[in-house]
């Protein structure tokens, strides 16, 4: 599809700017993309829930389209990378947290605590407070300095210090990876902890993530989908999300309040960590259901043309799974989330495979599994990469690229949304990819989208760690998130194909095509950086 209104006289300059592959952006067929969205979101695919028939149909369809387009398998002779999964359900009446303070015993269960883990678990230990649970040698900051967490249950605050300080060493008003639960749990495990209790940061100026989840549950019926995890895979110790009052009760043993402790850390950037005197806790997870299953990543590639650079990789990815059926048997279409990204991924694969001009680096097209269940396909790819991550130069993640952003119950008061988002694309995780923003903006000169970076400065909704770019960031790979934003139909049966803005979707695919062409051909691909300070 030709870019609406693009001056023909710029075409030669654009090709010089973005490389000969960039001209392939004009061959994107939005009619094919629309037809593919309608198929993926149809009742026949039953919401594409991981481990169920509809998901299997989606897997076979993507693999067939990759073969038809002329892609090569990334490893071996199959387009499929098996992803082993544990499916489970916790018994909320038996799982929970018990706290002993002197002679006082308190038992907490859902919804005051959320304790999920893919196996039965029980551990009782002394409790140590470890600030924000961060060890960041690159910033000369360590909450674990001076304390011994071995064999202990660790209590930490969510997020990271100095969240509202533009001069913060933690990327100013943006976040570092240290703010995420995944990194906090891995750090606690490295320090010998047996479990982690994560409390909302007490001096926050926004709702906690737990409070936002309650907003969502009050606005949308829960999906009856079971939890899932890699088999085997992280996390190796449980993370228990707790309410403010539980944390305050434990920290009272220190003679200080959560608020005063956070203020001290924010002011000094020094640890306030300590053993909590006479405080013990027991974390208990009891599963009512548990079964092994598997799903598939679907991976295809267009091999690079340069004898040396073809060993390097640029990944374009999108997750194909969604949330299955609701409690009444109605399917969640998932047209925006993420039939839009999957259909776009397949169309880009067709365009690059058909091009007589091949990229210098190898392009990998990855339809990833089980994003809705915890980014499982992306985590599995990153842990078992079919091509080395150390030579993966960029990842472009397409997730929810079909709608116009609009205020929801969850985003209300948290993020400023333009009055007209019909031509707007959000780009996330730019902080971690030096050089990527400049390349994207060059590619956008002939596409004309309004690019927004606002989501990188929104800490409450934790969007940084909620899509498939995130596992690649954890492994030091520049990874970008293309996202048109939240809307009231998110994760409801109203997320239907007719609600998408296909004109904008076409332009996003044109931008992705041009940016991928530059990443594949440039002598200076993006570079990962953990912090801007």
Walk me through what this model shows:
There is one protein chain. The chain has twelve helices and 22 strands. 26% of the residues lie in helices and 23% in strands. The model is unreliable at 1-19 (pLDDT under 50). The protein has two domains: 8-85 and 291-414 and 423-526, Aminopeptidase, CATH 3.40.630; 92-285, 3-Layer(bba) Sandwich (Glucose Oxidase, domain 1). The chain is α/β, with parallel strands linked by helices. Helix 2 crosses helix 8 and helix 3 (53-69) runs parallel beside helix 8 (335-354).
Concise account of the structure shown:
The chain has 533 residues and is α/β, with parallel strands linked by helices. 26% of the residues lie in helices and 23% in strands.
List descriptors.
single chain, 533 residues, alpha/beta, 2 domains, 10-stranded mixed beta sheet, 8-stranded mixed beta sheet, 12 helices, 26% helix, globular
Helix-strand category: alpha/beta
CATH homologous superfamily (4th level) name of the largest domain: Zn peptidases
Overall mean pLDDT: 92
Instruction: Give the fraction of residues assigned to helices.
Output: 25-40%
- Catalogue the unreliable spans: 1-19
């Amino acid at each position: 599809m030709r870019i609406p209104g693009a001056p023909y006289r710029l075409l030669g300059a654009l090709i010089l700017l973005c490389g000969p592959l960039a001209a392939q952006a004009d061959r994107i067929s939005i009619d094919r993309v629309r037809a593919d969205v309608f198929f993926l979101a149809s009742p026949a695919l039953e919401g594409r829930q991981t481990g169920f028939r509809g998901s299997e149909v989606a897997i076979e369809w993507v693999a067939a389209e990759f073969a038809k387009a002329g892609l090569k398998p990334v490893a071996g002779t199959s387009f499929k990378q098996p992803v082993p999964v544990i499916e489970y359900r916790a018994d909320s009446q038996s799982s929970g947290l018990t706290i002993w303070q002197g002679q006082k015993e308190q038992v907490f269960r859902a919804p005051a605590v959320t304790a999920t883990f893919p196996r039965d678990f029980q551990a009782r230990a002394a409790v140590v407070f470890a600030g924000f649970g961060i060890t960041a040698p690159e910033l000369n900051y360590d909450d674990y300095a001076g304390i011994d967490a071995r064999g202990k249950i660790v209590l930490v605050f969510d997020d990271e210090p100095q969240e509202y300080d533009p001069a913060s060493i933690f990327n100013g008003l943006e976040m570092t990876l240290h703010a995420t639960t995944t990194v906090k749990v891995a750090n606690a495990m490295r320090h010998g902890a047996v479990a982690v209790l994560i409390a909302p940061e007490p001096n926050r100026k926004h709702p906690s993530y737990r409070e936002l989840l309650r907003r969502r549950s009050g606005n949308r019926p829960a999906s009856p989908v079971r939890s899932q995890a890699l088999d085997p895979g992280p996390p190796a110790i449980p993370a228990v999300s707790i309410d403010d009052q539980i944390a305050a009760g434990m920290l009272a043993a220190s003679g200080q309040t959560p608020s005063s402790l956070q203020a001290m850390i924010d002011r000094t950037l020094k640890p306030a960590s300590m053993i909590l005197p006479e405080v013990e806790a027991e974390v208990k997870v009891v599963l009512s259901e548990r079964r092994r299953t598997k799903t598939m990543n679907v991976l295809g590639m267009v091999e690079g043309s340069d004898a040396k650079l073809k060993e390097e990789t640029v990944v374009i990815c999108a997750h194909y799974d969604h949330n299955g059926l609701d409690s009444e048997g109605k399917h969640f279409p998932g047209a925006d989330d993420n039939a839009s990204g999957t259909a776009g991924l397949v169309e880009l694969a067709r365009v690059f495979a058909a091009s007589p001009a091949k990229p210098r680096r190898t392009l990998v097209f990855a339809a990833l599994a089980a994003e809705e269940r915890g980014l499982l396909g992306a985590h599995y790819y990153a842990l078992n990469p079919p091509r080395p991550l150390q030579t993966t130069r960029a990842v472009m993640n397409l997730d929810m690229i079909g709608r116009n952003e609009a205020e929801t119950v969850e985003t209300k008061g948290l993020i400023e949304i333009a009055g007209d988002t019909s031509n707007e694309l959000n780009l996330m995780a730019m902080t971690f990819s030096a050089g990527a923003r400049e390349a994207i903006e060059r590619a956008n000169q002939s596409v004309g989208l309004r690019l927004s970076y606002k989501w990188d400065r929104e800490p409450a909704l934790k969007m940084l760690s909620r899509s498939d770019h995130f596992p690649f960031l954890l492994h030091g790979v520049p990874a970008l998130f293309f996202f048109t934003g939240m809307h009231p139909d998110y994760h409801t049966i109203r997320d239907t194909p007719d609600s998408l803005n296909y004109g904008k979707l076409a332009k996003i695919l044109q931008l992705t095509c041009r940016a991928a062409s530059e990443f594949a051909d440039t002598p200076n691909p993006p570079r990962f950086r953990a912090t801007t300070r």
